[in-house]
Amino acid sequence: MSVIRFFRATFFACVSFLLVACQGFNPVVDTFTNLLPKRASDSAYQPGLEYLQVSLRGRSSAMALGYRQTKGLDVHEHWYSGQREMLHLVNGRVVEVQGMTHELRKQSDKMPSWHDLAESKRPLVWSRSKDLMPGYRYGQVEYIISQWVKPTAQEAALVNQPAQWFIEQVKSKTADGREWLYNETYAVVNNQVIYSEQCVAPELCMTLRPLGMVKPGVVKP
Fold first, then answer.
1. How many domains does the chain contain in total?
2. pLDDT exceeds 70 at position 150
3. For residue range 20-35, what is the model confidence (pLDDT) as tens digits?
4. Of 176, 191, 204, which is closest to residue 100 (Cα–Cα)?
5. What is the pLDDT of residue 193?
6. Cβ within 8 Å of residue 15, ≥6 positions away
């Protein structure tokens, strides 16, 4: 991404934030106050920005793309809300969360690619370490089994195009040290995640869906 495009996106994000404060209008929908707002249907989107729809326990909001950067084969995306919450995604996986009730400060870089998982069609066992807040839990290790799966009819209906589906079974621990087992789900098209269900904590499991760039005169659903 060029420097000019980066500062253009940052400029629009800053303008959006000022509009919220001065006029009560929020182009990044309602933001994540108290995790997610009660409603987001009456808010507008800023043309020229890309958005990520985020759902939690039946509530939906959106975050605007601050910038996208390619490092080798990895695509990094930083998404922001009007309340300065941030999600950092690498190839569609959440690797950093800031400004929310539970934060992921850092995650190890080594992750299997969607291409490799699709080619093998066999389960892959791997691990990752995370720095988590609250509780100053640094270097917490999680064990994952990733595998390609055939989607159910209900899952296939969640996206409007054929996709490869992957399930990642995760063995982790909660803040009080109890064992926590959970699944993460990804729908992938051309190595890009178009739908996912990912967890940061038992109280913060989110559904993520990229909405693309808003064109002038178009209102996102």
1. 1
2. yes
3. 333 333 333 344 443 3
4. 204
5. 98
6. none
**Within a domain: residue 12?**
yes
What whole-number distance in Å separates Cα of residue 219 and Cα of residue 160?
18
**From the CB of residue 145, how many other CB atoms can be counted at a distance below 10 Å?**
14
**8 Å CB contact between 174 and 202:** yes
The full DSSP string for 168-220 is EEEEEE-TTS-EEEEEEEEEEETTEEEEEEEEEETTEEEEEEEEEEPPTT---
Instruction: Give the C-alpha separation, 34 to 36, whole Å.
Output: 6
Q: 46 falls in which pLDDT band (50, 70, 90)?
A: confident
Q: CA Rg, the chain, in Å?
A: 18
Q: What is the CATH number of the domain that holds 122?
A: 2.40.360.10
pLDDT at 63 over 60: yes
Q: What is the mean pLDDT of residues 156-174?
A: 95
